[in-house]
Design goal:
This protein starts with a helix and ends in a 6-residue tail after the last strand. The longest helix has 5 residues. About 0% of the residues lie in helices and about 45% in strands. The chain is mostly beta strands and about 280 residues long. It folds into two domains: about 140 residues, Immunoglobulins (Immunoglobulin-like), CATH 2.60.40.10; about 120 residues, Jelly Rolls. It has one helix and 23 strands. The radius of gyration is 20 Å and the shape is globular. The strands form five sheets. Strands 2, 4, 5, 6, 8 and 10 form a six-stranded mixed β-sheet that branches.
Length: about 280
């Protein structure tokens, strides 16, 4: 993903649409998430498109360097006069290094995943755009006085460093696993980014759930092959994430291999009740 954002082929045909982000200012404590709403308003087709339209989202420090990325494929077809609106979580993983305290620019843009061409957009930028990257908000990282305590149980392998600024670290799992979480800010959601071995011959899906003192055994989520963003309800400040492996059609005799990778774990406040 970071490579896509580093390439900036452009054209001079004018904006293909507008981007709006709300809210424009948020705080992002360590081991927590902040949620933005992205609103895209297409006004023209994506000129000379060759590949997947990809949204690149950067946090930039005072020197303009990219500190974190939250790149993702545009989740809908780009059609003039058809608005695209969706939430986007920015998270500091509880088992990655914390960000340095201070303000960061939130910048965004739209790029062709195949050619690296960035399309021009209309945006309420806080700074003049550079290479069709638009500063649309400010993310402030406060001092981490108290942060969640995360303890990995048996079955988890040692932490693997990430290869870019989107996935900073991974933990792989062999068999069943658990994660003990303490000192959460309060009731909310535990957000896990998981990857189950793609193409694995799964007969019965795996399962992830959360159990806490206030809730007892919570309802879980099935895990099939591929990527998953799982949000587990936490009614209190502590609990246990429980992960059961899938049943595979065939398993190599005498060999246990990782079947799951955890790429991020963070807390986010529960959404407000609907009126």
């Amino acid at each position: 993903m970071a490579l896509l954002a580093a390439v900036a082929c452009t054209d001079r045909d004018g904006p293909v649409g507008a981007i709006d982000v709300t809210p424009r200012r948020v705080e992002l404590p360590y081991a927590q998430c902040a949620t933005f709403q992205l609103s895209w308003s297409p006004t023209a087709g994506l000129r000379r498109q060759r590949g997947q339209a990809t949204v690149f989202v950067h946090l930039l420090d005072s020197g303009g360097d990219v500190v974190r990325t939250f790149d993702h494929p545009l989740p809908a077809d780009w059609r003039p006069s058809t608005e695209i609106v969706y939430p986007l979580d920015l998270c500091q993983s509880a088992f990655g290094p914390p960000m340095v305290t201070g303000p960061y620019d939130l910048s965004i843009g739209l790029v062709d995943a195949s050619s690296g061409r960035r399309w021009e957009l209309s945006a309420q930028s806080t700074k003049p755009p550079k290479r069709r990257e638009y500063a649309v908000g400010t993310v402030t990282v406060p001092p981490s006085l108290v942060s969640a305590e995360v303890v990995f149980g048996p079955g988890w392998m040692k932490e693997d460093p990430g290869r870019d600024r989107q996935v900073l670290a991974r933990r792989k799992l062999v068999g069943a696993g658990s994660i003990s979480v303490r000192a959460l800010p309060g009731p909310g959601l535990l957000r896990l980014d998981l990857v189950v071995a793609p193409g694995a011959p799964i007969r019965t899906p795996g399962r992830v759930s959360f159990a806490g003192p206030e809730t007892g055994s919570a309802t879980g989520t099935s895990l099939t092959a591929g990527r998953h963003v799982v949000e587990l309800v936490s009614a209190g400040t502590a609990g246990e994430v429980l992960i059961q492996p899938p049943t595979l059609v065939s398993t190599p005799a005498g060999k246990e291999t990782p079947w799951l990778a955890l790429e991020s774990l963070a807390w986010k406040p529960a959404p407000p009740p609907r009126p």
